[in-house]
Design a protein that fits this description.
6 helices; Rossmann fold; 180 residues; alpha/beta; five-stranded parallel beta sheet
Length: 180
């Protein structure tokens, strides 16, 4: 910069390591989820993708299968761990050393709910931050519920979920697709 000066960052500032937690039910994992995981893996030194064991929901896939689906789809990514938890997200974030909770937004309709959760988490754990990432436009229509509905009625979900998840959905609904 002509005539200006640059103030250097304090030593060690740019070398700070930061871990994030991406919690969800992932029932099943979609390409929208995977998009966020891939992008977050580039933003953070470590990312924990954590499957919530929610007693209030009846999942289509058992917990272990969802963990396997995520591990298979993220095997190519460095710094990504897959785990499960029950209880409060903020408590699990502390247990796994995360400083940031990652949440995805597909549309404006997601924002009100996600903001309420972020404020609740902040009230419980003021040191944690929530980071919202917008899903890529071409994945913005995806939700696990929509994917299951399409698969239930025999629709092709190969463009919505990783191949292993598509096969699992076919088995779940006793269907077969020529595209997977």
């Amino acid at each position: 910069m002509p005539g200006g000066s640059v103030t250097p960052y304090p030593p060690g500032l740019l070398q700070r390591s930061m871990r994030a937690l991406y919690p969800g039910s992932f029932d099943p994992l979609t390409f929208g989820h995977l998009d966020l995981i891939e992008r977050a893996s580039r933003l953070f030194d470590g990312l924990v993708v954590a499957v919530l064991q929610n007693p209030g929901k009846q999942p289509a896939f058992p917990l272990e299968r969802r963990l396997e689906q995520i591990r298979g789809a993220t095997a190519h990514l460095e710094g990504v761990e897959v785990a499960s938890f029950d209880g409060l997200t903020v408590e699990f974030a502390g247990a796994c050393g995360a400083e940031v909770i990652l949440r995805g937004l597909r549309a404006l309709s997601d924002f009100e709910f996600e903001l309420q959760i972020a404020h609740t988490n902040k009230s419980l754990a003021p040191h944690l931050e929530t980071l919202f990432l917008a899903t890529a436009v071409h994945h913005s229509f995806l939700s696990s519920s929509v994917v299951k509905e399409v698969a239930r009625f025999g629709g092709d979900v190969a463009h919505m979920v990783p191949a292993g998840v598509a096969r699992d959905l076919e088995k779940l609904f006793n269907r077969s697709s020529p595209h997977v």
